[in-house]
Amino acid sequence: MTRYYILFENYDQGLALHDLLDQEGVKNRIAPAPAVxxxxxxxxxxxxxxxxxLEAAKACIxxxxxxxxxxxxxxxxxxxxxxxxx
Amino acid sequence: xxxxxxxxxxxxxxxxxxxxVVNAMSTFGNASRGAHEGALTSSRVIYRxxxxxxxxxxCPSSEQVIFTCNATEALNIALMGLxxxxxxxxxxxxxxxxxxxxxxxLQNEHGVSLDLVPADRTGRIDPAEIExxxxxxxxxxxxxxxxxxxxxxxxxxxxxxxxxxxxxxFVVDASQTAGAAYINMEEMKISVLCFTGHKSLMGPQGTGxxxxxGDIPIRPFKVGGSGVQSFLxxxxxxxxxxxxxxxxxxxxxxGLSAAIDYINETGREVIEAKETALMMRFYRGVKDVPGVxxxxxxxxxxxxxxxxxxxxxxxxxxxxxxxxxxxEIATRAGAHCAPLMHRALGTxxxxxxxxxxxxxxxxxxxxxxxxxxxxxxxxxxxx
Lengths: 86, 383
Prior knowledge:
The complex is a heterodimer.
Chain A: E1 2-7, H1 11-23, E2 29-32, E3 45-50, H2 54-64, E4 70-75
Chain B: E1 2-3, H1 15-24, H2 37-57, E2 65-68, H3 71-82, E3 88-92, H4 97-109, E4 113-117, H5 127-132, E5 138-144, H6 156-165, E6 169-173, H7 185-188, E7 192-196, E8 208-212, H8 250-266, H9 268-286, E9 292-295, E10 306-311, H10 316-327, E11 329-330, H11 339-345, E12 353-356, H12 363-379
Parallel strand pairs in B: 1-11, 3-4, 3-5, 5-6, 6-7
Antiparallel strand pairs in B: 2-8, 7-8, 9-10, 10-12
Helix pairs in contact in B: 1-8, 2-8, 3-4, 9-12, 10-12
C-alpha cells in the first residue's frame, strides 16, 4: 500500500499545515520525515496521509497557500503483524 | 520582602506560569526532534507560543518569531546579523548596554559607523534629532522603547514613520515594555522587535526572542543542530530554524505561553493601568521630600513604571542596602547598565536607586516604600 508523506523544511511549516488539515477534517498524522526521498529533509517531520485523503489534502494546501516542500508516495516497507489481532 | 525591582525581573509570577513549567518538565521531549508524542508535545507548545507572540506584538508572520534566552541575545542576533561594513546606524543615549555594546562592537570590529542621539537632562531624546542624522549610507534606527533608568518611553510611531519615510530598518529593544505597553509592529513600522520574557511578560528567566516583520534576511548568529535538513552544510535558511540552532528552552517557553494567556485574560491595559497608578502614587509621595531628587520626565503618564531617585548625596548603593536591610524593600542601585543615561542625568558618580513596580505590587507596599524614603531622607539630612 502506498502512503503519502507531505514534507517540510521545518516543524513550523508542518505544524501549520497539520492544524489546517485537522480543522478541515482531513485525516493526517505527524510522522518522521522519510529519508529515502529527499535526504536533506531527513530528521524533520512530515504529515502522513492515506491515498484516499490525498486530494483533500492537496486542495486544503492550495486553498490556504500552505507552505510545504514536496509530497512523496512510499510503499510500506514493513509486513503487517499477522498475529496482532489473533 | 517588598519587591520593587520589577524592571530587573518580575520575581512574582502567575501560578499558571509556574504550573506550566513544572508540567513541561515531566512531559516535554525535544521540540523539532522526532515525531513521537514527547517531541510533538513540546513542538506544539512552541509553535502555538510563536502564534500568541505574533498576535500580541502585531507581527504578521508567526514563523518569524524567534526564541532566544533573553533580550540581549535577541539584540545580538539582530544587530550582528543585519549590518555590513560601511553601514551607518543611528541609536540613542537612552540605550542599555545590551544595545550599546553590540553597536560599539560593530563600530570597532566591523566597520559600521554609529551616531548616538543625545538625551537631555530629563533623559529624553528628540526624534527630530534622529532624522537630522540620517545619511545616504544609514541602514537602521536602533532604539529602546523605554529607558530602564527613567521609565520614559520613546514615541515608536513617530520614529517608525521616520524609518519608513527614509527606507530604513527600525530595530526596537522592548525589554522594559513588552507585556505591559501597547506594541504593534505593523502600526509602528518596527522591522525587528527584541523582547525578554521574564520582565513585564511575567514568564520565566531564560526566555525572550525577536520578531521580524517582512522579508529581512538576518545572518545566523550561531549555527548547529536544527532537527531538520541534517545533511545541509549550512544552517537551513528558513525562519525560524535559520536563527534557532540548538535545543530551545522548551520548559521556559511553556511558562511564557502561560504568561501570555494570563496577560490576555487579565487585560494588558488593566495591568498597565495598575502599574502606572502605583508608579505615580510613589512619585507623588516622594518628589517633594527634602533631599530627594527624582530623575526623568513625569509630565506624561505614558511611561514605564520606574522611579529612579537619589537622596541628598548619599551613595545609591548604601541607600538600596538600607532599604533592603532595615525596610525589607528590594530596589536596584548603581548604573543599571545604562552608562550614557547616567552621564546625561549627571549621576555617573552617585548612581541612582531605582524603584520599579509590577502587577503584583500593592498600594500598601507603595506607601511603605514612600515612608522608607522619607525616613532615610530625614536620617541622611546633612548636618
